[in-house]
Design goal:
heterodimer, A: alpha+beta, Glutaredoxin, 2 domains, five-stranded mixed sheet, 7 helices, 5 strands, B: alpha/beta, Rossmann fold, Ubiquitin-like (UB roll), 4 domains, 22 helices, binds flavin mononucleotide, binds iron/sulfur cluster, binds FE2/S2 (inorganic) cluster
């Protein structure tokens, strides 16, 4: 399923997000978060609108958006599976687990399955290091993953 | 009387199934028509026992864990609500050795109270510190914090009182308190646990910092990887505002202070204080050169205190019990208590708050119980991705700032990650360089380019390409990064790399080269 968002629509919705948040001190990150929340990504067409409304150059907004790992420039899959790749998770077999999950999904990190169900992302620590290895699926956390749990998690994500 | 059943809402407990357990318990309560209520507490920090369910029976808390949802009916059959016996019963939770031997000052309430109940918070000593602060002058508050010997728990260990004094003395219409809740280090979760398990203590600490320095606005900058902490923190701030703890007149003092939560966007470097300030201002998270210090020109160029969560959350108890009480814990110039975060391949992983000074070996072998896999401990990384790997030979190092520095290590945010003998230290060194390359803010060359060259050089060693020459080159490169980088991201990456190479040289000798045949 592809959602087509009309360009004028993006501009209008972005403008209303900016209107809601512009009174914050340093509003740019909260605005980008909200735009991503609204559209699932930060559409190119939103950038000039934000720039104009905040009286910034377009390059500045682009620079900020591309600096941070969280902001995407195209839509993700229906579910986002984040796998922790940091040291505590490595110490509990995180690398092997990552290989297994990649194989189960048939994709690498930062890719989306062909059916559009799952995007796989790497994260560096979820603060669950005492129950490593860990993952996050759409904001829900999972610890002490083993092969069986990983398989279940992938099955759940593909639904 | 209504029985209280505690089921943690801490993210790690949730990761191990606490939500399902809470649902199953709620079902049993209804199905059996029992007079019981579920309280969602924080975590006690004993993660091998999570989900840890506790029942309050005649003023005592009896624990059951680790509980799975399918265990719940049997637990009710066994009379859990009156502390009945069952294989999962742990007895009185406070009597468990892991908890009993701790000195919990900052974490005194974490896992015990309902994080969003102000009544609970006050009943357990909350707000006493802020009440005292309200009756004092800013100079007196700053002196109390200085005298306590509290040093920043975010990594650098800079004395908190001195930082506050600089901001107090700085002139400015507007001043800020920024709480660094970015907690990006692997092996660390103390900040997350406080925000989820006792958010009012952080709010109280920030309000005290505001009174001490004349700041009227605070920000909690935390990471997008912590949605649960963000939710609890935001809700707690709303409750505190309603109760007049925050707002135009803190506890009726006539002095204003309010807090806002901000979410980062997945950049490790934004834990560095000046990068964090840039990020809060809506810019790229690029590190600023110092001077000017944030204490003089920080957020929006205003005088700013920037402190770690644990630094701020330790202030209420200092104000409540006095500087001397806090200072009497610890060793050398490391005063007070430190929440150790024991993680990775370890049997008893969790949060252990204790006075500075335990040996690393004591922490890993005795408290942590060795590895979870049951294999020998090979290496322990202390202080996150920029911290050194210590071999068993350094297990007698006492846990304090100076002792670790003397062994070319750092305690950082006190995250301790244990590895068993299957760990490949060359791979870990490579990861450290790779992490630096991915997360570099790009401002300076040694870090931006050096880390990528570092990955290539480690790869050459692994493949047996002029290994001797490349080991020397890697050492050189580390030296350049250490002395040529603007901030500790590039400057400290040599710690994990060099410690791996120094203490585990056998892993840097390539296996007989297969490629020679090509
Ligand atoms: C790359 C990098 C990442 C850092 N990450 C954090 C962090 O996540 N949390 C934190 O409190 N301090 C972090 N620091 C340390 C901060 O720059 C700063 O020293 C700290 O916020 C000061 O607070 P404190 O005095 O209470 O420790 C980091 C430093 C560097 C160089
Ligand atoms: S050391 Fe790295 S992260 Fe720090 S300022 Fe230089 S480039 Fe940026
Ligand atoms: S290292 Fe994976 S959760 Fe912390």
């Amino acid at each position: 399923m592809t959602i087509h968002i009309a360009e004028g629509d993006i501009a209008a919705r972005t403008r209303s997000i900016v209107a809601d948040l512009r009174s914050l001190e340093g509003p740019l990150l909260p605005i980008l978060h909200q735009v991503q929340q609204e559209f699932g990504y930060v559409p190119q067409q939103a950038l000039p609108v934000i720039a104009e409304e905040l009286n910034l150059s377009r390059a500045e907004v682009h620079g900020v958006m591309t600096f941070y790992h969280d902001y995407r420039d195209h839509p993700a899959g229906r579910h986002v599976l984040k796998l922790c790749r940091a040291e505590a998770c490595q110490s509990m077999g995180g690398d092997a687990l990552a290989e297994r999950i990649k194989a189960l999904l048939g994709i690498d990190f930062h890719q989306t399955t062909l059916d559009g169900s799952v995007t796989l992302e790497a994260v560096y620590c979820l603060g669950l290091c005492a129950c490593a290895p860990s993952a996050m699926l759409d904001g829900e956390v999972y610890g002490r993953l083993d092969d069986q749990l990983a398989t279940e998690l992938v099955a759940e994500a593909r639904r | 009387m209504t029985v209280k059943i505690y089921v943690p809402r801490d993210a790690a407990a949730l990761a191990l199934g606490a939500e399902k357990v809470a649902k199953a318990i709620a079902q049993e309560i209804v199905a059996r028509g029992l007079d019981a209520e579920i309280v969602r507490n924080g975590s006690r920090g004993m993660f091998w026992l999570e989900p840890l369910v506790e029942i309050e029976v005649t003023g005592k808390r009896i624990g059951y864990g680790p509980v799975k949802a399918m265990d719940v009916p049997a637990l009710f059959d066994a009379g859990m609500l009156s502390g009945g016996g069952h294989p999962l019963c742990l007895g009185e939770v406070e009597d468990l050795p892991f908890l009993k031997e701790q000195t919990r000052l900052t974490f005194a309430r974490c896992g015990i109270t309902d994080p969003l109940s102000l009544g609970d918070y006050e009943a357990h000593g909350g707000l006493a510190g802020l009440r005292r602060a309200v009756s004092m002058t800013p100079v007196e508050i700053v002196k109390e914090v200085t005298d306590s010997g509290l040093r920043g728990r975010g990594g650098a260990g800079f004395p908190t009182g001195i930082k506050w004094k600089t901001v107090l003395d700085a002139s400015g219409e507007r001043k800020y308190i920024v709480c660094n809740a970015d907690e990006g280090d692997s092996g660390t979760f103390a900040d997350r646990m406080i925000m989820e398990g006792d958010p009012f203590v952080l709010i109280e600490g920030m309000a005290i910092a505001g009174l001490a320095t004349g700041a009227t606005k605070g920000f909690v900058y935390t990471r997008s990887e912590y949605p649960h902490a963000i939710a609890v923190m935001s809700e707690a701030i709303g409750i505190a505002r309603q109760a007049g703890i925050l707002g135009p007149s803190v506890l009726g003092s006539g002095r204003a202070f309010d807090i806002e939560v901000r979410t980062g966007a997945g950049a490790y470097v934004c834990g560095e204080e000046t990068a964090l300030l840039n990020s809060l201002e809506g810019k790229r998270g690029i590190v600023r050169a110092k001077p000017p210090l944030p204490a003089h020109k920080g957020l929006f160029d205003c005088p700013t205190v920037i402190n770690n969560v644990i630094s701020l959350a330790s202030v209420p108890v200092i104000m409540e019990r006095g500087a001397a009480f806090y200072r009497d814990f610890g060793m050398g110039r490391s005063r007070g208590t430190i929440p150790l975060q024991i993680a990775g391949n370890v049997r008893y992983g969790g949060l252990y708050e204790t006075a500075f000074g335990l040996s690393l070996g004591d922490i890993v072998d005795r408290i942590g119980g060795g590895t979870r896999t049951g294999r020998p401990v090979k290496a322990v990384q202390v202080g996150g991705p920029l911290g050194a790997y210590f071999p068993r030979a350094l297990f007698d190092t006492p846990f304090d700032y100076e002792s670790f520095a003397a062994k070319d290590g750092l305690i950082g945010h006190a995250g301790i990650v244990v590895f068993d003998d299957t760990a490949d230290m060359l791979k870990q060194a490579r990861f450290a360089m790779e992490f630096c390359a991915v997360e570099s803010c790009g401002k300076c060359t040694p870090c931006r380019i050096g880390s990528t060259r570092g990955v290539e050089t480690v790869d050459k060693i692994a493949r047996g390409i002029e290994p001797e020459k490349n080991r020397v080159l890697l050492g050189d490169l580390c030296n350049t990064m250490k002395f040529g980088s603007l901030c500790a991201l590039g400057g400290f990456t040599p710690y994990p790399v060099m410690s791996a190479m120094t203490h585990f040289p056998e892993d840097f000798v390539p296996a007989p080269v297969v490629e020679a045949a090509e």
